[in-house]
């Protein structure tokens, strides 16, 4: 209820008149006023609903684009949505972070995206000037194609038309990529073995090593672990007289890769060869413990270690070799007895707990052995296909048949291609291993 009192004239007379009107003793407008004012005047006014005022402790703080550091949270009520922050946190929330506070990594991660969205985040760091951001692949020069017809079109059109590589070149590059696949988790060991001698086991080891070393950028070594005087070192030009026995005797003094390379011979493809003992009186002395010493040193400096194993499959060196093996290559000749002995090698491995190695094995069939022309090689391949992962034929090559130094560049193209296929299959079947 609101009471309105009429105001009078200025001075005491006006004040007295106002009081008389309020008391109802005198007309408000004088003698000429028809009515008099009531004793009180009631006016109803619709006021808005009262607005709730949040207490000071519940005052909200707007955090625009700024995270809350958990270390400065003072109180967190699980039944409410308010967080009470200490004064340093409030100051940090209301003050924009400087580049020095956020660091270059945060700026590199967020500033370009936010800048494109129209947000001013300060200057960019140099880390944001990446090649992916700055270089337009459509404007860059394309490499000249490989292939007779593709190269002809490329040159006659003044490098305006690039048909790309030929199918053969693409296949070659794809095989290179398979051979050069990254292997995580340390050195990988690949024994090359069979129960029969004279089937080209040492030759296959050399070809496989050369095919790997000619493509891969890491280090490849082939170790002659034949306790019966192996001939692996005779497949490359000798650069040292050192053997596995010297590695065992000097193991404590080998402090780096340079020390180790003094004991090996290196081929033009960068394949390193570690020879076996040449003295037949000492050959039997190379046992399981000696092989482990050599293998431990080789694992320090090489990514792939090939082992040319002897025919003595029950020898202690064979046990140490198989325990380290990541994959195996079984060598078979093209005759009936050579194929049968190679299959019996797989049977022996399965019977002695190496079934997983057998299923992942690769059989290399050396077609340069005697009797190959009389045997159905496809039947040999069908037999091994039921037991192993892959089979590769190694064709006859005069340089390989000579049994002397092998020069990779002088081999027939088909021989090199077969060795490269063997290398790609071996690398492709390497089991995953944690780094």
Automatic annotation (TrEMBL):
RNA-binding keyword on record: no
Pfam families (UniProt xref): CbiA
InterPro entries associated with the record: CobQ/CobB/MinD/ParA_Nub-bd_dom, P-loop_NTPase, ParA/MinD_ATPase
A Gene Ontology BP annotation from the UniProt entry: negative regulation of cell division
Chain intervals for the UniProt region annotation (Disordered): 1-34
Record Gene3D superfamilies: P-loop containing nucleotide triphosphate hydrolases
Keyword list, A-Z: Cell projection, Cilium, Flagellum
Sequence ranges assigned to domain CobQ/CobB/MinD/ParA nucleotide binding in this UniProt record: 194-335
Cell cycle recorded as keyword: no
One Gene Ontology term, aspect cellular component: cytosol
GO molecular function: ATP binding; ATP hydrolysis activity
Record protein name field: MinD-like ATPase involved in chromosome partitioning or flagellar assembly
Naturally occurring in which organism (per UniProt): Microcella alkalica
């Amino acid at each position: 209820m609101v009471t309105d009192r009429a105001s009078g004239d200025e001075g005491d007379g006006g004040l007295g008149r106002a009081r008389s009107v309020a008391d109802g003793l005198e007309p408000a407008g004088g003698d000429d006023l028809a009515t008099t004012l009531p004793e009180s005047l009631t006016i109803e006014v619709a006021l808005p609903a009262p607005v709730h005022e949040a207490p000071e402790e519940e005052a909200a703080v707007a955090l625009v684009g700024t995270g809350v550091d958990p270390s400065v949270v003072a109180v967190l009520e699980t039944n409410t949505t308010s967080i009470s922050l200490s004064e340093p946190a409030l100051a940090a929330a209301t003050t924009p972070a400087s580049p020095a506070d956020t660091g270059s990594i945060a700026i590199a991660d967020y500033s370009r995206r936010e800048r494109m969205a129209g947000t001013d985040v300060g200057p960019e760091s140099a880390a944001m000037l990446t090649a992916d951001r700055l270089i337009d692949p459509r404007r860059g020069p394309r490499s000249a194609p490989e292939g007779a017809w593709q190269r002809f079109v490329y040159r006659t059109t003044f490098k305006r038309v690039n048909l790309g590589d030929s199918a053969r070149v693409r296949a070659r590059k794809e095989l290179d990529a398979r051979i050069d696949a990254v292997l995580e988790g340390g050195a990988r060991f690949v024994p090359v073995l069979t129960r029969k001698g004279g089937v080209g086991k040492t030759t296959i080891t050399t070809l496989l090593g050369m095919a790997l070393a000619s493509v891969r950028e890491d280090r490849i070594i082939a170790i002659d672990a034949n306790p019966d005087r192996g001939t692996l070192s005779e497949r490359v030009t000798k650069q040292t007289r050192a053997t596995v026995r010297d590695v065992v005797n000097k193991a404590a003094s080998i402090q780096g890769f340079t020390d180790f390379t003094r004991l090996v011979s290196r081929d033009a493809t960068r394949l390193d060869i570690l020879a076996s003992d040449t003295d037949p009186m000492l050959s039997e002395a190379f046992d399981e413990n000696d092989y482990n010493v050599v293998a431990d040193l080789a694992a320090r400096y090489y990514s792939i270690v090939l082992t040319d194993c002897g025919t003595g499959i029950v020898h202690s060196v064979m046990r140490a070799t198989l325990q380290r093996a990541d994959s195996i290559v079984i060598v078979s000749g093209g005759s009936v007895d050579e194929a049968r002995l190679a299959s019996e090698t797989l049977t022996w491995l399965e019977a002695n707990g190496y079934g997983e190695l057998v299923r992942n094995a690769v059989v290399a069939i050396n077609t340069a052995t005697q009797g190959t022309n009389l045997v159905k090689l496809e039947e040999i391949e069908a037999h091994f296909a039921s037991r192993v992962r892959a089979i590769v034929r190694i064709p006859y090559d005069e340089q390989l048949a000579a049994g002397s130094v092998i020069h990779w560049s002088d081999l027939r193209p088909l021989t090199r291609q077969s060795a490269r296929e063997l290398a790609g299959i071996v690398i492709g079947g390497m089991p995953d291993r944690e780094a």
